[in-house]
Amino acid sequence: MVMEKAREVLVIGGNRYFGKRLIARLQAAGDRVTVLNRGSSAPPAGAAHLIADRDDEDALRTALGPRAFDVVVDQVCYTPRQAAIARRVFTGRTNRYVMTSTVEVYEYEDSADLVGETAVDPLAVPVDVELPWDDPEFLDAHYGEGKRQAEAVFAAPGPELPYAAVRVAHVLGGADDFTGRLQHYADRIRAGEPIAVPAANHPATYIHVDEIADFLHWTVGQDFTGPVNAASHGLLTTEELCEAIAAHIPSGRTVFRTVKVGETSPFSFARGYAMDNSRAEKLGYPFGDVRRWLQQAVAETLREDN
User: Fold this and answer.
1) How far apart (Å, rounded) are the C-alpha atoms in residues 189 and 13?
2) Which residue among 12, 94, 132, 195 sits deepest, i.e. has the most Cβ atoms within 10 Å of its Cβ?
3) 3-class SS at 214?
4) In a domain? residue 187
5) Is 195 helix (H, G, I), strand (E, B) or coil?
6) Is residue 28 one of the residues assigned to a domain?
7) Is 125 helix (H, G, I), strand (E, B) or coil?
8) pLDDT at residue 207, rounded to an integer
9) Burial call 261-292: b when 16+ CB within 10 Å, e when fewer
């Protein structure tokens, strides 16, 4: 039996939640993994560690030295500035660059149909690196725009850096879900407090934390380029999500209250931008169905309520 050559994989950031699950899958497959971060957290056992501020191009080059990688997985590219540095530094150092993007690149969409990748063409997205991307409040308020412009930097003509941008649906599941979004609903249901939703509340696409780790691991071994949507089959409304949460809080009461856009709860949406996952499926990845894992995801995250 001929063994495949172990890949050299660099993971930038992402040492928690689905990032750590991705690293575990890479290691289990025999890949040699290096984690690059600012040094605030140690990498998983067995992974090499590089320390650098990815916003500092000179420091990043120094940390990398002469190293090259079969694949780079960038879990923490949020701005066009970061993308521009990464493109300059990693062109010629890797055969494949996988950027974790987001469903929020479609934040300006409002469609009754599932939204495909062509709805946001990175080549048509204007880039402005002079915006205050270093301001945490600005970045938080422009999360989707930062990701959209970062994709545009990787897609722009220039020295070749084969890239894929995985547009990740809303992630659920895991006892280590640090977002607090499911807990937001659980707290209100437990207390009988109203849950804020817009007047026209649209369903959305989701993905389990283990499924996105599986998908990213699969993507590492593929050769397609450009954006790809990653979402489980099926849509969930806020009401369905709350119903699943309420099943773990028998004494709770679910009450909804209509509010203005901008004041809504985490998983309620005034626009339709649920993602079409058919490109990934045609490329060979079989997604699961959200309703098959929803109860499991809620139980994992709200384990203290079981």
Assistant:
1) 35
2) 12
3) helix
4) no
5) strand
6) yes
7) coil
8) 98
9) eeebbbbbbebbbbbbbebbeeeebebeebee
What CATH code is carried by the domain that includes residue 36? 3.40.50.720
pLDDT tens-digit readout, 75-95: 999 999 999 999 999 999 999
Structure tokens at 222: 């593929």
Whether 300 is covered by a domain: the verdict is no
CA nearest 241: which of 195, 303, 178? 195
Which residues on adjacent β-strands are paired with residue 219?
none
Burial of 44 (0-12, 13-18, 19+ CB in 10 A): middle
Which pLDDT tens digit goes with each residue over 175-199? 999 999 999 999 999 999 999 999 9
Do the Cβ atoms of 12 and 73 come closer than 8 Å? Answer: yes
72 vs 25: CA distance, rounded Å: 15
Please state the domain count of the chain: 1
Among the listed residues 160, 155, 173, the one whose alpha carbon sits nearest the alpha carbon of residue 105: 155
Q: What is the mean pLDDT of residues 24-41?
A: 95
Mean pLDDT of 100-116: 96
Residue 7, token pair as written in the block = 């890949």
Residues of the domain holding 109: 8-176+206-232+273-289
| 48-51 and 71-74 beta bridge pairing | unpaired
- Distances from the Cα of 294 to the Cα of 99, 163, 247, 253, 280, angstroms: 26, 31, 12, 20, 21
| Other C-beta atoms lying within 10 Å of the C-beta of residue 125 | 18
Closest among 124, 127, 143 to 227, alpha carbons compared: 124
Give me the helices (H) in 29-172, please.
Answer: 57-64, 80-90, 136-141, 143-155
User: 0.70 cut: is pTM over it?
Assistant: yes
- Taking the C-alpha atoms of residue 275 and residue 118, their distance in angstroms, rounded to an integer, is 11
Residue 25 phi/psi, 5° resolution?
-70, -40
